[in-house]
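2024-03-11 09:14:02 INFO worker-7 job=invfold-0412 stage=load source=structure_tokens
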């Protein structure tokens, strides 16, 4: 994508996010990554009359290669943290999510938008007010529920007790102080109560393993007791999943984390075939997916801050809140939450 086109996308984004001449926007990047993103956001903020600067930190030391969440690289830069707490909006080009520094910056009132996906995807899944509305309707419904049950033809039957953790939204832009979002995104989620998740999840071919960025080929059966995965069975996919989690040497990697459903009719289930190197936001967002995750729940205010995290969007699942159907075999059945024409 040429820089002018990308500039225009970032201007659309910051306009949706309510950036204006009274505001200061900081853009955070690391090493040589996403320099063109920083340029585009600086240009866009300037068009809106905001004050903007780019804060760039050095590359991190080489790590294990695994996707370990929660380490922001900011801990050794207290002055940078201080500066980011003072701005209205932070564009995060390095992925701070799950770090205590991110939570600290949000708590100071800074709104944060993570932007790490390829420009083509940012353009195709540009957020809209309609999408936000749909996600917020989902939030309202989910926040009132006291239990969630997920089933599938493959054999999934799992129940989450709700009520302990807040319901959160991601719709791809951010105009609320202290809130976090990720561009692109369109889903709603909460977490099961500690020890309140029980049952069986059977992953079927075509379900998605993030951060492997792969599609499950053979069924994987997870047995869940009291909020933890106790057993993982199946073929190659099951072995890869177990082997990866074991490298973290942290039993909390088996904890049940956020759970919810996707709402963007423009997002493709087959998205990883086009953007294999991205974060998989398209897969988290595709319309009617039911996504559960394992690992940390500190994003929801919970005690688990393990760096081992999986997001697993599933196709053709059904999701019930207090026995009311919300998603049936991959289709949203709540009229106010449906996309036009679906
Ligand atoms: Fe997640």
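2024-03-11 09:14:09 INFO worker-7 stage=emit residues=342
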């Amino acid at each position: 994508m040429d820089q002018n086109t990308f500039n225009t996308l970032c201007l659309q984004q910051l306009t949706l996010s309510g950036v204006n001449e009274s505001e200061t926007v900081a853009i955070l990047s690391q090493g040589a990554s996403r320099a063109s993103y920083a340029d585009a956001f600086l240009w866009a903020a300037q068009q809106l009359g905001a004050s903007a600067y780019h804060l760039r930190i050095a590359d991190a030391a080489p790590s294990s290669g695994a996707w370990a969440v929660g380490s922001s690289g900011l801990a050794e830069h207290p002055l940078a943290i201080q500066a980011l707490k003072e701005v209205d909006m932070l564009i995060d080009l390095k992925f701070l999510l799950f770090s205590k520094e991110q939570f600290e910056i949000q708590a100071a009132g800074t709104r944060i938008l993570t932007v790490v996906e390829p420009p083509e995807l940012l353009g195709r899944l540009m957020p809209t007010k309609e999408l936000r509305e749909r996600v917020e309707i989902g939030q309202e419904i989910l926040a009132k529920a006291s239990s969630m049950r997920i089933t599938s033809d493959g054999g999934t039957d799992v129940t989450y007790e709700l009520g302990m953790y807040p319901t959160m939204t991601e719709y791809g832009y951010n105009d609320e102080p202290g809130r976090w979002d990720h561009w692109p995104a369109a889903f709603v989620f909460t977490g099961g109560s500690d020890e309140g998740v029980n049952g069986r999840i059977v992953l079927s071919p075509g379900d998605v393993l993030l951060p492997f960025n792969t599609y499950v080929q053979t069924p994987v059966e997870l047995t869940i007791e009291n909020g933890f995965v106790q057993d993982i069975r199946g073929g190659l996919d099951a072995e890869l999943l177990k082997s990866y989690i074991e490298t973290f040497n942290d039993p909390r990697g088996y904890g049940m984390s956020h759970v919810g459903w996707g709402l963007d009719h423009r997002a493709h289930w087959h998205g990883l075939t086009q953007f294999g190197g991205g974060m998989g936001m398209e897969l988290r967002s595709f319309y009617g997916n039911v996504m559960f995750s394992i690992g940390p729940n500190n994003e929801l205010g919970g005690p688990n801050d393990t760096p081992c995290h999986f997001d697993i969007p599933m196709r053709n699942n059904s999701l019930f809140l207090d026995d009311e159907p919300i998603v049936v075999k991959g289709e949203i059945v709540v009229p106010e939450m449906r996309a036009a024409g679906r």
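2024-03-11 09:14:09 INFO worker-7 stage=report msg="The mean pLDDT is 95."
2024-03-11 09:14:10 INFO worker-7 job finished
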